[in-house]
Amino acid sequence: MKKIYLDHAATTPINPLVYEKMKPFLEDFYGNPSSVHELGAQTKKAINESRRKIASILNCKPIELFFTSSGTEATNWAILGYADKNPDKNEIIISEIEHHATIHTCEYLEKRGYHTHQIHVDEKGFIDLKELENKINKNTLMVSIIWGNNEIGTIQDIDKVRDICKKHNIILHVDAVQMVGNHEIDLTELSIDLMTFSAHKFYGPKGIGMLYKRESIEIENLIHGGMQEKGLRSGTENVVGIIGLAEALELSFQSLHEYKKNLLALSNALFNLLKKEIPTIRINGPEIGKNRLPGVLSLSFDSIRSFDLAFALDKEHIYVSTGSACNATDIRPSHVLRAIKQENIEKTGTIRISFGAQNQIEDIPYIASKIIECYLENKER
Ligand SMILES: Cc1ncc(COP(=O)(O)O)c(C=O)c1O
Question: I need a labelling partner for 157 at 20 to 30 A (CA). Which of 119, 231, 271, 313 fits?
Fold first, then answer.
């Protein structure tokens, strides 16, 4: 039976071209970049070249890029590191629909006496910019906002968020994990202070993320040790991961327009077919178009449990996510679905379909027919 992966917002398979670039660093070039001998120099050079390549793609300085183990680590570091450097301020502003990497980092800081303001979002997931501005006060440490939402696909107007922060002289961290490959990113033009990336969301390897830190911003170390990453993030570098991240980023930027166009076509085709057969189906987040991640479809169905629908699809080898909290045993609607005040939320089942490079438009009728079949078979009567 055919296997259809529709969970690219969770992770993407590695691009074979990325893997080819990584291979020599798994086999032949194994030197520790901190070693003084030739083998060390080889891997050190490869890291430096990767950093320069990434900087030129994102239009920033190489010294503004720091490799981490994940997007989660980059976000933890951005928030905790800036808090530790600026102990005189103790209020953080985030939105209601942040990734848990942000929410749980702020909850951790709350145990240390910090206060988090969660800015409300409207029914499409757009943050209330007036509320954001009103919440800024003399105790505000920073603002941290998710740019493209991993669950409902909402793309925030990050220029407006940045302008508000700049007007009040508050630094801004942006979680851009879902944006690479789906949107232009020019760090000089964007003029944002801190930004989080993660390679496994754009066909790079797992276990490697990156924090962009504007040169003038100071943050405290999260990890202490051998002084790697300009003394700010110690630990022997994940050389092969760094090579993979740089290559995956380059390939994603090269194919940006084509990739987006394909994802939009897949999203539109599937939604139109489903809507014809299940008129009550709803799409969460903005309309398919420029304010939404092109491949992310959060779909709600009446009178079914998210998990039952996802599980039925799993049995058909169609892999999607649910719109529930983090795990299979917790079936409450997620904080994001609660934030957009979904109608009849307790009786609604939500799945997230996220398309990617290997999905084909020819498969859409099959996918639609399986979703319809699984829905009708599992719907509560
Ligand atoms: C928006 C967003 N931020 C952060 C993360 C965390 O990234 P990582 O999986 O690299 O820790 C994810 C991953 O799901 C994400 O979707």
Answer: 271
Together in a domain, 292 and 250: no
pLDDT value for 2: 87
Name the closest-CA residue to atom 13, ligand 1. 10
For residue 381, the model assigns a pLDDT of 77
Domain that holds residue 323: 256-378
pLDDT tens per residue, range 118-148: 999 999 999 999 999 999 999 999 999 999 9
User: For the chain, what percent of residues have pLDDT higher than 90?
Assistant: 94
Question: In whole numbers, what is the pLDDT of the chain averaged over residues?
Answer: 96
Of 254, 272, 301, the one marking the end of a domain is 254
Instruction: Find the 238 Cα to ligand 1 centroid distance in Å.
Output: 18
Contact between residue 349 and residue 34 where contact means Cβ atoms under 8 Å apart: no
Q: Ligand 1: which residue has its CA nearest to atom 16?
A: 150
**Distance from first CA to last CA of the chain, Å, rounded?**
30
Q: Is 8 in the pocket of ligand 1 (CB under 6 A)?
A: no
For residue 184, with 0-12 CB atoms within 10 Å meaning exposed, 13-18 middle and 19 or more buried, which class applies?
exposed
User: Mean pLDDT lowest for which of 174-178, 211-215, 303-307, 344-348?
Assistant: 344-348
Ligand 1 atom, smallest distance to 9 CA: 16
Distance 198 CA to ligand 1 centre (A): 7
pLDDT at 352: 97
Alpha carbons 51 and 65: distance in angstroms, whole number: 7
106: tokens are 């702020």
